[in-house]
Amino acid sequence: MTQPQFPPLFTGEAVTRDPFAQACARAVEGCDAGLVLYDLAADRLRAAIVFAPETALQDALAALPVCGVGFQNALGALGPPEVAVHLGWDGPIYVNGGRCGAFRVAASPSDPEAEPDWLVVGLDLWLWPATDEGGLTPDQTALYAEGCAEVDAVELLEAWVRHTLVGLNSWADDGLASLHREWGGLAHGKGTDIDVLGQAGHFVGVDERFGLLLRQGDTTRLIALTELLETLP
């Protein structure tokens, strides 16, 4: 297998176990920002990027939608133009309407107003279905089952990191306005009733920090991105 090539300041390393968990462990040990751990299996692409934000966690978590938009841009550049990618607020990736994977996020410390020592965003993408019985899980799909069989997983991983870097640079230079516009056009379920983190309501939109605005009856509840942080074992 060809080894992925990443932009300067990013260092790739293949692993055989959960890249997200290992990236978090390496971050705790003090690894450099820009570490990309990945596991490229025949039916699954898993990867994680270590970040070292220089802002409060509640602001730094914009890295999650940056990574999501980066993935959409990467697949958009490599896949057929008719393939539609949408992003669930809480991490799911949808391809042509079916769930095809998800993003994960962790950071430490978890105080929203504190600058985190590290932040890790993980990608888990299904390349081939787990079973040929697609009718058993009609809401789930896999990348190669959606007309993307010609998309090389190594190239997709490279493109994801590359487009994510473009998004990070845009954020640093121009703020989050363009990210809000682009992510808003990809938001799965926006304007509909959804259930997220055990809360049901109408997906109104997001606030300036990408917190979910969920209308429940006469009130609108704000669910911050910090609610998506995974607790390390």
Mean pLDDT rating: 95
Largest sheet: 7 strands, mixed
Q: Looking at the structure, what is the overall shape?
A: globular
Provide the succession of SSEs: EHEEHHEEEEHHEEEE
The tally of helices reads 5
Number of strands: 11
Helix-strand makeup class:
alpha+beta
- What is the CATH homologous superfamily assignment? Bira Bifunctional Protein, Domain 2
Distance between the termini: 32 Å
What is the CATH architecture assignment? Answer: 2-Layer Sandwich
Helix content: 25-40%
CATH topology label: BirA Bifunctional Protein, domain 2
Rg is 17 Å
What is the name of the CATH class?
Alpha Beta
> Which residues sit in consecutive blocks of at least 5 with pLDDT less than 50?
none
Number of domains: 1
Largest sheet, order of strands side by side? 1-2-3-7-6-5-4
Protein name: Biotin-(Acetyl-CoA carboxylase) ligase
Pfam families: BPL_LplA_LipB_2, DUF4444
Keywords: Ligase
Domain DUF4444: 198-230
